[in-house]
Amino acid sequence: MPPGATSGADLMVFFHGGGFVLCDIESHDALCRRLAVATGMKLLSVEYRLAPECRFPAMHRDARAAFEWARTNAASLGCDGGRIGLGGDSAGGHMAAWLALRASARPAFLVLLYPLLDVEAAQWEGSPMKDLRFLGRLAVGYVRSQIEDFEEEGGSLSAFRITDADLSRLPPTVVVEVGIDPLRPGIHAFVEAAQAAGARILGLSYPTLAHGALNFAYMSKRAAQAIDETGAALQGLLRARQV
To answer: How many domains does the chain have?
Structure first.
């Protein structure tokens, strides 16, 4: 909880990145603490199940359960159940965006830090990042294989696609994009589609930063600035909503 946060403050339920395979709440502790301070919100960092020990979509089911738990226990968490939003970086951004679009209850806001929004190879065609695709090939390839296994066993991939959902359902949303990132094409397409659908979405761009950079705000002034500006942008969207 950031300094100055009081009972009734907004709460962000946050899902860490790592390609659904790596990282945990410890690896993202510094990022979450700085994001809580930047937004002035309480932040609940979720330790969800990872592959390969737990197969797709175990992590998405955990995300749904965490959001529902937060809403049910809002009073004990010192927040208003109607002011609970979602956030995540990279693969965690996929879970946050998916949940914002598919959950029965609409979150109050959404924060996506260089999110994984598309696992299709076609997103790299014609992209200036096509020659750097190796940066994300293993992670995205593994995620894709998990999804394909899920489909072969009777699961529906469409339920986990971000771009197939009704983007007009998005709550006020801030999306952070960085320059050195093979996920940029999917992020661009998502922001453009959301804007066309009438969603209140704000994109922030940091061309000199790389994917995962916000985890290192303690050693990068630019990364620290990006987190602070993300918090300010979110607060601006929420204030505008109340007018």
So the answer is: 1
